[in-house]
Amino acid sequence: MTISHRAMIVQGGGNVMEGEGANKHRVPLRFIEAIRKGRISFKLLVVLIPAVVALLAVTGYVTYIFSNNFLNNALQRSVQFQTLGLARELGSFLERSRDDLLFIAEDAPAADDLPARLSHLDRIRPGCYLELAYVPFDGDSKPAYCILANGAARSIQAFGPDGPSPDPMASARAASKLPPLTVRIEPVALVEVRPQPDGALLREEAIRFTVPLRQDNVVKGAYLLSIKAKRLRDLLSLYNSEDSPLWAVPRSPEVRYSYLFDADGWMIFQSADLHKPNHEMATYLARAGYTGTLGKPGQPMAFRPESKFTEYWRMHAETLQGRHGVIEEPETTAYTPGFGKSYFMGYAPVLFSPTPGGAPVIYAGLANIDKSSLNLRAGYKHIDVMFIITLATIVLLSLVTYFLGRTITRPIIRLAAAMHDIRASGKLTEIILPDYDAETSSLKNALNEMIRTVRRQMTEIRERDAAIEGVQARQPATFDAAATDLSEDEPKELLGVGPLLDALRADVRKAAQVEADVLIVGETGTGKQLVAEAVHRLSPRSQNPFIAINCGALDENLLLDSLFGHVKGAFTEARGDRKGAFQEAQGGVLFLDEIQSATPKVQQALLRAIAMRKIRPLGSDREIDVNVRILAASNVDLRAMIREGQFREDLYYRLKVVTIHTPPLRTLKESIPIMAMSFLRMAEAQAGRSKLVLSKGALEKILRHDWPGNVREMKHAMLRAAIMSEGALIQNEDIRLDEETAELPQETVFTWPEESQPASFGSETFADQSFAPVESGPEPASALQEKAPKTELDGLNPRQKIALRALADTESLTRADYQAMQQETISPRTALNDLSDLVERGLLVKLGAGPSTRYQVNFGAVAAKHSSKE
User: Fold this and answer.
1) What is the pTM of this model?
2) Cβ-proximal residues to 114 (8 Å cutoff; 6+ apart), any chain
3) How many other CB atoms sit within 10 Å of the CB of residue 371?
4) Do 711 and 526 contact (CB within 8 A), yes or no?
5) Does position 57 have pLDDT exceeding 70, yes or no?
6) Which of 551, 632, 562, 624 minimizes the C-alpha distance to 590?
7) 384 vs 61, 378, 486, CA distance in Å?
């Protein structure tokens, strides 16, 4: 790639980027332009609604912040209340255990009295107590120790290394110096003891209480009572469940838990599932998100966080100082509440009074983790309310702005409506409206003055344009003669230029080079026979005959005779042999026009003849080989007729080897001038004129017309213009089209000369003469004057009355329609006779000729007849 090419690419890329940037900037500019050009009410809405929405959004956000803060305060108070209630319940539980110990320690126990006392306590507080011991200090008595195992109190005689651990003797000696009625409480410890010498080792975390026994101010010994730490854990679990005494409303299913920590900062145990009382002591929820030391002697699940977790150690310090509080969003990331949810950790000291009514001491700390989605739900409700308020405000503001805008702009809108009416009607009439205010009155007067000026100027322009157009329209039109020049191998029958005609000529050339049968499809008057003649002329069969048969112009028997012929004596009038069209076209081409009109019998005969290329004349026992190429034409959709059962599918595919579509004249606008001049040259010979020329006005009129009759309609229009024009230059008024006259031009059809009328044979008719195209022109005026119209309704046969009743609901009918609506089957000749009689009576008007002939009610004659009867 050269440097210049690269520079061009870079420059092109820059242009693309600039185009994209321009498009990005064009969008807001268009929006601003739309606002600038909008109505006053729209401008007010565009300015006011965003401002009000923004104001409401700010207000909603501020109120949400305040309400969220107050809601957080309420949640913090709720968490603090729950934490204090749970801490008080734990302290009360410990003090009830203290009171039970003081009740037992009133005197020294008798021999084997401890198990009975422990069983008594277990009955009062089931599953609460674990150990009960008495240690004398006089040296003469033996210590006593019992434990609850499997619901029964058992005495243990062994002390020391084989006895309970921790040693009860050490706990008792620590209580010997306590004041009277003072209970010593120990931290949670793991108690290990064997209830039976050969039994399994019992392991249970417990809290030991000790109190000295004094008699005569002398310490005789000490009592020891321990409670299961699981009972405290169960209290934590209770207050975190739906059975909690503080449970008021259903809570969302977030993870909530509590845990106990000691004076050294160790997390001792956490709450668990209330419905699983035998669950092991654990701290996995409490320590989640922290790093630190797991396990200490006697408490393998205890956990102590590292010193970097400042919020935890601040909570620990404040708890040891006897203070309580709430931490929002603790520093641990475990069990984060999620978007829009609150996360609080309440803490409080667990107090214990060593003496009844004495000053409490801090035994441990309690942490209560509470998570709530109340903030999120409140936020959603807040958004809903603000949305409703905003929507209501927008609706109210829109209504106020709408009515205010209507009041202000009503006069302007009425002026605009008046101007719109002027534009729609095309009449420059002055605006007549009441005066609402000075501004609109001034605007109305200015508009009326402008209307008067424009009306005066338009009149002048129209007069000048009419004069110029009148002169130009009467000037001769120019044509490109080179556009009609075609080579020798081109189908000269197909005049015109353009891609459609080029494709049609190409199809004709291709079809002419092969021997396959051809189906020509197109509307009536599009030159299907010209296409067939062009295929014949360009084909190798051009030196042989071209025979054309209109299947719609002959009834069934006559069409069979015309196609296949007959032999002498085949019927009464058959005085000699007659060759049919297949034999006449031997070695050449047979063109079957309006093939869709063939009856099922004719279709069957044609199918065999086309398939076998053999025919059998009427009355003959010998089949004759024919060498004929078939060209068929249709102006209807044969596939639709196949679906309706009116045309044989096998015959359709026999004919449809090569298909040529003739385009309608309305799609060949570029070819209309060439065709018009060609038909005008042909009309010169018929009208005895020469050197006729179309004016520009006449050509413009021809180009504007849709030509529903296609080429045939144009050909007859040119013939009529050649006859009716006064000079050599055909003007606009010389071209008479369908919308200007009710008469339709006559056309060239296949008719039978008078000397060749078919003879009758029973109910069938046969043609005894060869067929030939005869030009059917309009009847002389004298002949039309001699035919006095019959307006009598009497003498009509039932078939004619049925047709007249049917014409009350439709515009017109054809000969085939007339046959189809009868209750009995009639021949085409009978139908034509009935219709001709109705035309002579003046009840129907005949439109067109040949296969396209239609019959319409003569409403004037019918109305005159009814009025005369009345």
Assistant:
1) 0.46
2) 132, 133, 134, 144, 145, 146, 153, 155
3) 21
4) yes
5) yes
6) 632
7) 13, 10, 80
